[in-house]
Amino acid sequence: MTAKLCPLTDFLAFTLANTSVPNTLGYADFSAEFIARGIVQLTPKQPSSTDIVLSCGIHGNETAPIELCNQLLAEIARGELQLRQRLLLILGNPEAMLAETRFVDENLNRLFCGTHQIGPCNIERQRAAIIETAVAGFFADATRARIHWDLHTAIRGSEHEKFAVCPYQPERGYRQQTLALLAEASIEAFLFNHAAAHTFSYHSAHLFNADAFTVELGKVAPFGANDLTKLEKMACVLRKLIAAESINVGAERLAKTAFYQVRRVINKDHDSFRFSFSDDTANFTRFKQGDLIASSEQQSIFCDTAIEAIVFPNAKVPVGQRAALCVVPVPLAQVCM
Ligand SMILES: O=C(O)CCC(=O)N[C@@H](CCC(=O)O)C(=O)O
Ligand SMILES: [Zn+2]
Asked: What ranges make up the beta strands (E) of 254-295?
């Protein structure tokens, strides 16, 4: 396979152009199976013990992680990065990438765990079904370790530039070692969800027992406008995971990391719903007891505890959907095994 014709050297370009690719391609040390548009499964000749799903662009305008994943695939294709684990790489929402929007018809990251089956068919519902099938096929062997990092960027700036959302998994809990790996990859804060969700990371954690996280890697920017040097630590850890290299991180790596528990969700209840703060207010901005957070014709929402921080505030979501998470700082011991 010459580099010029190889879909893996610029998988993003192939995906956006919707160029047809063969079903499978053989390389010296691995094979590539093109499962669907923007979804490729790589199998090394002698796979190590962990199956890794790496996804990006579930929201089409979150381009930095897409560029990072595209770069890692190219490194594998050129033989610069040794693939030693099975890898499923997913460019989440190609149509939204082309439209340079978060989504075309509906937020793809609310349609997992089969939610896409409920309601009229649209671009994101079709895509959720395709992605779920690919993941189920890839994670078929329950005896193997499973990792899924779903890479995003946030709409607004953040007090913690890079942070991870931990899906609700009360039975399994979180191991400090697992979080330390993300901290090594420059994750500064962890946010523990308090309830089931229909996000992609929850899907993988809940249905496949994967060590799954939504990973926020800075702020949204158009293709070509990202400074990928800011993601170098993340790239370094991903390379080591893919190459099955040992990553020596002790739990002490978490010493400077912040932990937050989701305390409540603010849902948009009416078209008149507004936040009390400006659009440039950063994620994790803190409110104190009695501060007004949001209001609508039907209600006013105040901070009702000593300190509460707000994450992912978005008043533009449809009525009934999550408009923000309210989180409180917690000690590590309270959220980890
Ligand atoms: O910046 C924002 O408001 C949204 C960033 C984003 O896409 N976040 C994910 C989080 C998913 C999770 O809760 O695990 C989302 O809203 O889908
Ligand atoms: Zn996102």
From this structure: 258-267, 274-275, 285-288, 292-295
The CATH number that applies at residue 281 is: 2.40.50.630
Of the residues 62, 109, 192, which should be mutated to test ligand 1's pocket, given the most ligand atoms within 8 Å of the CB? 109
Packed helices 232-242 and 63-77: angle between N→C axes, nearest 10 degrees: 40
Domain C-terminal end among 199, 222, 254: 254
Is 302 part of any domain?
yes
Strand, coil or helix: what is 316? coil
Give pLDDT tens digits for 11-65. Answer: 999 999 998 888 999 999 999 999 999 999 999 999 999 999 999 999 999 999 9
Q: Is the ipTM of this complex over 0.90?
A: yes
145-154/189-192 β-pairing:
unpaired
Selected catalytic residue, list 67, 124, 161, 216: 216
Q: How far apart are CA 15 and CA 97, in angstroms?
A: 10
130 DSSP 8-state letter = H
Using DSSP, state whether 228 is helix, strand or coil. helix
Ligand 1 surroundings by CB, under 6 angstroms? 59, 109, 152, 154-156, 165, 197, 199, 201, 214, 312, 314
Shared domain check, 287 and 245? no
Say which ligand is closest to the CA of 61: 2
Domain end: 226, 254, 282, which one? 254
Neighbours of 331 (CB within 10 A): 8
The CATH number linked to 23 is: 3.40.630.10
Does 210 share its domain with 298?
no
Tell me, yes or no, if 216 is annotated catalytic: yes
Distance CA 93, CA 51 (A): 22
Sign of CA dihedral 277, 283, 288, 294: positive
pTM here is 0.97
Same domain, yes or no: 201 and 301: no
137 φψ region: left (φ > 0), alpha (ψ -120 to 50), beta (else): alpha
